[in-house]
Design brief:
The complex is a heterodimer of chains A (about 200) and B (about 500). Chain A is mostly helical and about 200 residues long. Chain A is about 70% helix and about 0% strand. Chain B has one domain. Chain B is globular. The chains are: A mainly alpha (about 200), B mainly alpha (about 500). The interface between A and B is large, with 76 and 60 residues.
């Protein structure tokens, strides 16, 4: 058997998503072909997707070999650890203060922790740091202001590149340049509605 | 029809200070991202979308269009000087262009590509102006069933022409349509797939999806690959062509313009398909075909003319039918809808400023690009020396601010992260995100037309084959699908798309 692992995985993903869609769609009225209810089009779409997913899966069993990248033990361990840590932090985050029980800050903190945990595995490092950098931006922006949020984002994203870790002075220069540029474009020119500096208490 | 009068109106719109300024900004940004490998027009336009909300619709579209065709000019510079495609559409330019540079004709190659692009762009502008109103009048006779079939055709062709397995691409299109259904049902007001999250009641944020899958995921993937940027060795001397080169390049430019204009209009087509098509044609038909592989000027002139022509004519289906032909056009639909304009056949009548202003600005933009690219070539070569490690934090920062400022809500930033992870996963499984984006944009429109068509036909599915327009669309879609099942054609496509 020449298994095309990429296609098999894609097929499984398509089938899973279609199944979730069909399951959620049970809440919606189907209506008739003449008067379609809100559930009619999703039903059609997800059944087609289910069929296509199955086709991709079956054809993928023979069209290979095209393996996925090999995951090491540490990749699996850290993925599971990250999901657990992230969910845990999200659930207990309201205890850290009122800030985390409002809007999406609790979820954001959980995501940040998860993405930072996953960076321990080399294979996940780039994905982890880049996504963590975006999460910290969202967490810091409303209370800490644009400048602080951007500085933290640049710092974390720079961790993704080994050359930056070796030469922190370059990151500092980059940070000053980007902060000045963002201030000029977004605050001076476009005047977006956002706090620039940390809130005063 | 009064094309001259309309064009004059368009030029009046395009020559306003604001529109000229943003056409220039678009052209500059487009050239910059075209020159830089690793960042393309889809990512750039998606991360600049939020910035355009504050502007009038015409100005916004003029700028975004400038980025798309500007990237076609810039991409060739990197291809010729570094043997690296700055854009996917300039992959074939590396084949002959870099050889020309090695032979000491870098200047000539750059000049050919810029002049060829300019000529093709000017012709394409006229094509858009002439065919726009014509197609619009045809489109007005379309019923809901015809629209549904047309969109289906567009989706299928975009999947057929995408890289990799067709079934997988169609799967991605369908997944995109499914994602597009999230949110409030327009007719009954019922919430669908929102998990009780109020932010999802307007649907998944278009900006978050596009930015995550194309912007952020691309950063991660670029960082994974070791930087393959060779040092610039070639020197650019004279930018002028010899008499012999003029004679060889001219017919290729003409052919490239025709091929590009046609392939651009096709649903699923666009700049990259056009440049491949033209390259194939030049290799078979041009007088200098025996020179291919040793730096034939025809192999630069044809594809470069074709990709610029196609970048512009791919606006035709969008402006006349409201149907995006490729991922960049899907972003344009997003930009228009956010501005409160529903793209479709009524746009030419209802938004004459936008339609004619955009056409006029395309030509102005091409003039600007000629100046930006030829005399100022040295500046862009310098840009190539900025390493990616300094570039990606800047892109990331723009994505952060951009995704937040759409609704001033951190929810959008987190959704961008989710789509970045998804986009990264898709790439690892060789699932193409571009068909998904087109499906996402067309999904809600298809549902609306399907419901209307079925209501009018009293639930009779035969309406899709009884109406001649609809039936022919479906027939073309079926032929396209069947054709790709033939092994010979499939191999041809793979050869063309893998470059």
């Amino acid at each position: 058997m020449k298994i095309n692992a990429k296609d098999v995985a894609s097929g499984v993903l398509l089938i899973l998503l279609a199944a979730v869609g069909l399951w959620l769609n049970m809440d919606h009225t189907l209506g008739s072909a003449r008067r379609m209810g809100p559930g009619y089009m999703p039903m059609l779409v997800f059944w087609v997707q289910l069929g296509l997913g199955t086709l991709v899966l079956v054809l993928g069993l023979f069209s290979g070999p095209d393996p996925l990248e090999r995951w090491k033990g540490i990749d699996w361990t850290m993925l599971i650890l990250a999901v657990v840590a992230g969910t845990l932090v999200w659930q207990v985050s309201p205890m850290f203060g009122e800030f985390f029980s409002s809007t999406y800050n609790g979820v954001g903190l959980g995501m940040l922790v998860g993405f930072l945990v996953i960076c321990y595995a080399l294979g996940w490092r780039l994905l982890g740091f880049i996504c963590a950098a975006m999460c910290i931006f969202a967490l810091l922006l409303e209370k800490g202001g644009l400048m602080l949020a951007l500085a933290a984002t640049i710092l974390i994203s720079a961790m993704a590149e080994p050359e930056h870790r070796a030469r922190p002075i370059g990151v500092l220069g980059l940070m000053i340049f980007l902060l000045a540029m963002c201030w000029w474009i977004f605050i001076k020119q476009l005047d977006i509605r956002v706090a620039v500096w940390p809130m005063q208490y | 029809m009064d094309i001259i009068g309309n064009l004059a109106h368009g030029f009046a719109v395009a020559f306003s200070f604001q529109n000229l300024l943003f056409a220039l900004i678009g052209a500059l940004i487009g050239t910059a991202i075209g020159v830089l490998p690793g960042i393309g027009p889809v990512a750039t336009i998606s991360l600049l979308l939020p910035i355009t909300f504050g502007q009038p619709a015409t100005t916004a579209i003029i700028m975004l269009a400038g980025i798309y065709y500007g990237a076609q000019y810039g991409g060739s510079t990197t291809a010729i000087l570094l043997n690296l495609p700055g854009e996917i559409s300039s992959v074939v330019t590396t084949l002959e262009g870099y050889k020309m540079a090695r032979n000491g004709r870098a200047g000539a190659a750059l000049a050919t590509s810029a002049l060829g692009s300019f000529f093709a762009g000017s012709v394409a502008t006229v094509v858009v102006a002439a065919s726009g109103p014509l197609l619009t009048s045809i489109a007005l006779s379309f019923g809901p069933a015809d629209y549904f079939s047309l969109m289906l055709l567009g989706l299928i062709i975009s999947a057929v022409l995408a890289q990799g397995s067709i079934i997988k691409s169609i799967g991605m299109v369908v997944l995109g349509v499914g994602l597009g259904l999230v949110g409030t049902d327009v007719q009954t007001g019922q919430q669908r797939f929102t998990f009780g999250i109020p932010e999802l009641s307007d649907g998944i944020s278009f900006v978050a999806l596009a930015m995550g899958m194309f912007g952020i995921a691309e950063i991660i993937l670029n960082l994974e690959r070791p930087e393959a940027r060779s040092v610039l060795k070639t020197k650019v001397d004279s930018l002028w062509l010899t008499k012999e080169e003029w004679k060889r390049a001219t017919p290729s430019v003409l052919r490239g313009t025709v091929v590009g204009s046609i392939l651009g209009i096709l649903p699923g087509g666009g700049a990259s398909l056009a440049s491949f098509g033209s390259y194939m044609m030049e290799r078979k038909m041009s007088k200098g075909r025996h020179m291919f592989g040793q730096g034939a000027i025809e192999g630069v002139a044809g594809p470069e003319a074709a990709n610029n022509a196609a970048a512009q004519t791919s606006f035709i289906p969008l402006l006349t039918l409201g149907i995006p032909a490729n991922a960049v056009m899907a972003l344009m639909v997003g930009a228009l809808i956010i501005q409160g304009i529903q793209p479709g056949p009524r746009m030419v009548e209802a938004q004459p400023d936008l339609f004619w202003g955009l056409i006029a600005s395309m030509w102005i933009g091409n003039v600007m690009l000629l100046v930006i690219n030829l005399p100022m070539i040295g500046m862009w070569v310098k840009l190539l020396q900025v390493p990616y490690k300094f570039l990606y934090p800047a892109i990331l920062v723009f994505c952060c601010i951009g995704s937040y400022s759409v609704n001033n809500n951190v929810f959008d930033v987190y959704s961008t992260v989710v789509f970045a992870v998804l986009g990264y996963m898709f790439n690892k499984m060789k699932m193409e995100p571009a068909p998904l984006l087109i499906g996402f944009v067309l999904g809600p429109m298809m549902e609306e037309h399907l419901r209307r068509a079925m209501l009018l036909s009293r639930g009779d599915v035969m309406v899709f084959v009884e109406r001649p327009i609809s039936a022919s669309m479906l027939a073309i879609a079926a032929v396209a699908l069947l054709a790709m099942m033939l092994p010979n054609l499939r191999k041809g496509k793979e050869a063309a798309l893998s470059g």
